[in-house]
């Protein structure tokens, strides 16, 4: 366990703030110059990146992402100030008055990961010279304690949701293999041993 603790202490936590906005209309789909895009960027804004939930869902939501020093600065602001700054950035991107964005906003949720007591940040950051810490953190302790999460992904997907999901699946499969059980992906469709076949 000490190896994992040393490895964890070599990594850093990345600052992350997300803002979810729901509007009365998906105005970005109604404008010819933005209708076909799912990502929007404004490097001058604290929320430099925005995305829609398309193509998976045709919703009226935009998600704003802020990381690093910009997110650290946002953490010091009131939620209302963060929202106001975000709407100013969207007004620049979509060439719309800030007031019309305010009036069209139905609901919003701010997620400041620095304020979460159990994470205190959004994702692992690997400093220069600490790449081997990821592999050390991913190693199980004995035959009973397995680690998962984006910080343990050794294939280059650290810092991502799919990296977290991938390591969770791998840890579960390793645990099942140690117990001599097949993973859910390997079990036959006919049910478990001793059970009746599905009809």
UniProtKB/TrEMBL annotation:
It holds the Pfam family Amino_oxidase. InterPro entries: Amino_oxidase, FAD/NAD-bd_sf, Flavin_monoamine_oxidase. It is an enzyme of class 1 (oxidoreductase). One of its GO terms (molecular function) is tryptophan 2-monooxygenase activity. Residues 4-176 form the Amine oxidase domain. Belongs to the tryptophan 2-monooxygenase family. Residues 178-199 are annotated as: Disordered. Keywords: Auxin biosynthesis. Residues 178-188 have a biased composition (Basic and acidic residues). This is Tryptophan 2-monooxygenase. It comes from the Bacteria. Its EC number is 1.13.12.3. Pathway: Plant hormone metabolism; auxin biosynthesis. GO terms for biological process: auxin biosynthetic process. It catalyses: L-tryptophan + O2 = indole-3-acetamide + CO2 + H2O. Transmembrane segments: none annotated.
């Amino acid at each position: 366990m000490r190896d994992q603790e040393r490895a964890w202490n070599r990594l850093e936590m990345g600052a992350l703030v997300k803002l979810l906005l729901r509007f009365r209309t998906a105005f970005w789909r109604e404008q010819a110059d933005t209708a076909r895009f799912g990502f929007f960027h404004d490097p001058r804004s604290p929320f430099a990146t925005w995305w829609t939930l398309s193509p998976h869902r045709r919703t009226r939501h935009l998600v704003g992402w802020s990381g690093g020093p910009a997110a650290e600065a946002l953490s010091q602001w009131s939620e209302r100030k963060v929202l106001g700054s975000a709407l100013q950035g969207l007004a620049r991107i979509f060439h719309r008055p800030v007031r019309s964005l305010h009036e069209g906003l139905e609901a919003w949720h701010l997620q400041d990961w620095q304020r979460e007591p159990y994470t205190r940040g959004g994702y692992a950051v690997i400093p220069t010279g600490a790449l081997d810490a990821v592999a050390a953190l991913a190693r199980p302790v004995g035959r009973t304690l397995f680690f998962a999460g984006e910080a343990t992904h050794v294939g280059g997907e650290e810092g991502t949701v799919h990296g977290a999901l991938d390591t969770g699946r791998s840890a579960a499969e390793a645990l099942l293999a140690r117990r001599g059980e097949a993973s859910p992906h390997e079990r036959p469709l006919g049910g478990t041993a001793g059970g009746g076949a599905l009809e």
